[in-house]
Design a protein that fits this description.
Blueprint: H1 2-21, H2 26-141, E1 150-155, E2 158-164, H3 165-168, H4 178-192, E3 197-204, H5 219-237, E4 245-251, H6 262-268, E5 270-277, H7 280-286
Parallel strand pairs: 3-4
Antiparallel strand pairs: 1-2, 2-5, 3-5
């Protein structure tokens, strides 16, 4: 379309030039021809520039379309990211609330456990205080028998009153002699003032075989019968409550010291009276 217009304009100018040539001088004619060529060249250059501009515009439109597509894609991605962020923030808030609730519950449980621990520690402290006080009382009450092999000490929160067999029994006998009864009476005086104390009487022997002792077959028998003799004296004669006291025989299997010398065997032959505070309060707290 543009090429047709350009051709018509050029033809019109050429006709006008011919018409003027009839009456004009050669010099003027040549000038007009030169002007015509210049105009034609200008139109051609303009046409080339217009074509170039049209191509540039077409390229820009294409680039613009690509950019618009990219912008649309980015907008969709941004929208998706915003949606994800909103969802994540909502979920995070919910999780944070759950964590805060759980944390408060854990703190409450911890406070309860700490309170129970303080109660347990208080009970154990009282037990240790009572154990030390009992040991001191027994040491004072039985001071006169310590030269005869009686000892009082604390092991694992319990008071152990250890009496060698020579303080209580004649060799191979299960009958308590007078000196042993005197020591047990002094012990019973203290135990009667401590009703919260449990009593366990343990019989121990050395590792020598028992021979010629009638119905006593072995060291098991000897240790058990000596323990029950002490229990009967404390319950029947000294009136210690039966429910507080037990008798056990350990035989030769829990010696103070390993060995077979007369001195070691003498130390291993003993009655141990184990005194332990009642821990009902502690057991109930643990339950």
């Amino acid at each position: 379309m543009r090429k047709t217009i350009y051709s018509v304009i050029a033809l019109f100018l050429f006709i006008c030039l011919l018409a003027s040539c009839v009456v004009m001088s050669p010099k003027k004619y040549n000038n007009l021809i030169a002007q015509k060529d210049s105009i034609s060249l200008g139109w051609e250059n303009a046409r080339i520039k217009i074509t170039s501009l049209e191509e540039m515009i077409s390229g820009l439109k294409s680039d613009s379309a690509l950019l618009q597509a990219k912008i649309t894609d980015l907008e969709e991605k941004i929208k998706g990211m915003n949606d994800s962020f909103t969802s994540l923030r909502s979920n995070s808030s919910s999780e944070i609330n759950k964590l805060e609730t759980n944390l408060k519950k854990l703190e409450a449980d911890l406070q309860k456990r700490e309170a129970r621990l303080r109660e347990v520690e208080d009970i154990l402290r009282k037990r240790d205080e009572a154990t030390n006080a009992l040991k001191n009382k027994l040491q004072k009450a039985l001071l006169g028998f310590q030269q005869s092999g009686l000892t009082v000490d604390i092991r694992n929160g319990k008071v152990y009153v250890s009496l060698t067999d020579k303080l209580l029994f004649s060799s191979g006998s299960i009958v308590i002699d007078d000196k042993g009864k005197l020591a047990l009476r002094e012990l019973a005086k203290v135990l009667k003032t401590q009703p919260e104390i449990n009593i366990s009487v343990e019989g121990h022997t050395d590792n020598q075989r028992v021979v010629n002792l009638g119905q006593i077959k072995d060291n098991w028998d000897l240790s058990v019968l000596r323990a029950t003799s002490v229990v009967r004296f404390l319950t029947e004669t000294e009136k210690i409550e039966n429910g507080r006291i037990t008798a056990t025989g350990k035989g030769e299997y829990q010696p103070i010291e390993e060995g077979s010398s007369p001195e070691i065997r003498s130390r291993n032959r003993r009655i141990e009276i184990v005194l332990s505070p009642k821990l009902d309060e502690l057991y109930n707290l643990i339950k």
